[in-house]
Amino acid sequence: MAPFDYGPGRWKNASTAAQTCLSCDVRSLTLCHGVPDDGIRRLQAATQAVSLIAGQPVVREGEPADHIFNVTSGTVKLYKLMADGRRQVTGFLQDGSFLGLSHANAYVYTAEAVTQVMLCRFQRKALEALMDEFPTVRKKFLEIVMDELAAVEDQKLLLGRKTALEKVASFLIMLSDRAVLRGHPQHLLSVPMGRLDIGDYLGLTIETVSRTLTQIKRAGAISIPDNSHIRIDDRAYLERISEGG
Amino acid sequence: MAPFDYGPGRWKNASTAAQTCLSCDVRSLTLCHGVPDDGIRRLQAATQAVSLIAGQPVVREGEPADHIFNVTSGTVKLYKLMADGRRQVTGFLQDGSFLGLSHANAYVYTAEAVTQVMLCRFQRKALEALMDEFPTVRKKFLEIVMDELAAVEDQKLLLGRKTALEKVASFLIMLSDRAVLRGHPQHLLSVPMGRLDIGDYLGLTIETVSRTLTQIKRAGAISIPDNSHIRIDDRAYLERISEGG
DNA sequence: CGAGCAATTGAGCATGGTCAACCAGAGTGG
DNA sequence: CCACTCTGGTTGACCATGCTCAATTGCTCG
C-alpha cells in the first residue's frame, strides 16, 4: 500500500463485504490465531464491512455499544464533548486499531472518520461468544486493551504537564512512530487531521498549534510542504523537546 | 470498616500473609468465581500480603513488571515523572483496584502508598497460568481493564479541556462517588492525599488547588474541617460546575 | 513554647487563549 | 478564463487564567 493515499482511488479494489472481511485483521492481527475455520466462519456471519467518507460518524457517545469495530484503513478520531462545545479528542486510530471495546453498555466516546475509512464491524455478542469458545481470542484482546491502557499514561502526562511546544513535538514524534510501525518513512508524515483536531487532541487551540508548528519550523526541525504533510528534518531535536529537554 | 480510619490501628487484625490473602479480593471480587479450591490454593502459593506505610513505593516506573497488586486497604497513587521533576499523578487507587496490570515487561508508572496501605501481591506468571487454566478469570480481568479504559476518557477531558474550577469540582465529585461506592457517606469526604498530589493529578499547582478550594468554600458548596477532610454542602452546585455549567 | 511542615494568601508575570485581520488553495459561476 | 467565495490555516494584538515567588498562617509534635 502506498503511503499518504487516502483518496477515493484506494477503494477500487474493495468489493463485497464478504471479501473485505476476509482480508480484515481478524486473521492478520493473529486475533483468531488457533481458531478453526468453523469459528471464523461464524464470526464472519456477524461481521460487516463499513466504508465511510471523511466526517461521517462511526459511533456516538452514549449509544448502545452493540458493535465493535476494527479500522482497516484510513484514520478515525475519537472525542468527547462538553455541553458548551468544548471538545477533547481522545485518540486517532489507524488500521489495526479496535474501537468500541467496552464492558459498559454505551460507547464512551464519539468516533468519526477523519479520512475515507474502511472498518470491519463485529456484532459484540458474536465476538463475545467467540471469546467464550476460544480463550486465545480473549487473551489477545486483553493484551490489546492492556497495551492501550499503558499508552494512555503518556497521554495524561502530556495533557496535564507538558507545554504547548512539548505537546506538539510529542505529537509529531507519535505520528512518526506510527508511520514507522506501518512501514512508511519516518521523516515524511501524513497529517490527515486538521489543526482543530490536533488542538483538541493536545488540549490547545488551533492558533497555538499553528504558532507552535511555525516555531518548530523556524527552528529548522520540520518543514511543511502542505497542510496535510510535515517533513521531519531534525528528529533528535523533536525528541529532546518532547520530553522537556 | 469505619470510614476515614487509615491509621495504624487498622492493622491490628492483619496477621499472617496466608490469612490476609484469604480475605483479599481474589474471592470477594468474584475474580475467581467458579475456580475450584485447588486453583485458589495454587494462586495463594504465589501470593503475598504486603503492608506499606505512607510514602513507600509499591513499584517503580521501568522496573520489570513481575508482580500484579490488588489494593486491600488504604490509598495508592500512581505517577509518572519528567526529567526536570514535573509529575503527573495518573490515578488514586483504593481497595479493590489492581495495579501493575500490563502486557509489557515494565511498569509504566511509579506506585506509592499515600496512606498506610495493604496489598496482595501476585506473581504475574502465576496469575497468567490461572487465567490460562480458568478462562473466567481472564474474562473478569478483561472487564476490569475495559472499565478502566472507559474511565480514562473522562480524565483526558478533564486534563485537556477543563478549567481549574471545573477540575477541582470534578475531583470532589469523584471522591464523593467513590465514597458512596464503599458505603461511606456521600457528603463527608476523606482526602488522604495532600494538595501537591491533588495538583499533580489535576494538572494544576498546589496554590491553584488551594485557591480554588477556598473559592468553592466561599461559594458555600463545601466546608473544610481540616486538611484531610472536606464536607460537601451543595453537591448539585459541584456537579453543575464540574461539567462546565 | 518553638521547630517543622503543609496549606493559604498575595503580588506580579507568562503561557496560552481570544478576537480579529489576513492569506492561500480549491471549487463555483458568470 | 477569471473573479468570487468558502474553507482552513496563519499571524498579530491584547487579555486572562493559572503559574511563580514570597510571605504568612495554622497544626502537630517535640
Numbering strands along the chain, what is their spatial order in the largest sheet of chain A?
1-8-3-6
Q: Count interface residues per chain for the largest interface.
A: A-B, 46 and 45 residues
Q: How many DSSP-defined strands of chain A?
A: 11
Overall shape of chain A: it is elongated
What structural category characterises the helix and strand content of chain A?
alpha+beta
Order of helices and strands of chain A: HHHEEEEEEEEHHHEHHEEH
Major β-sheet profile of chain A: 4 strands, antiparallel
| Quaternary organization | homodimer
- Total helices of chain A: the number is 9
What fraction strand of chain A? 15-25%
> Quick check: average pLDDT of chain A?
88
3D structure, described in words:
The structure is a homodimer of 245-residue chains. Chain A has nine helices and eleven strands. Chain A has helices at residues 17-23, 25-28, 37-45, 124-133, 135-161, 164-181, 195-202, 206-218, 235-242; strands at 47-52, 57-59, 67-73, 76-81, 87-93, 98-99, 110-113, 117-123, 188-190, 222-226, 229-232. The interface between A and B is large, with 46 and 45 residues. Chain A binds a DNA duplex (30 and 30 nucleotides) through helix 8.
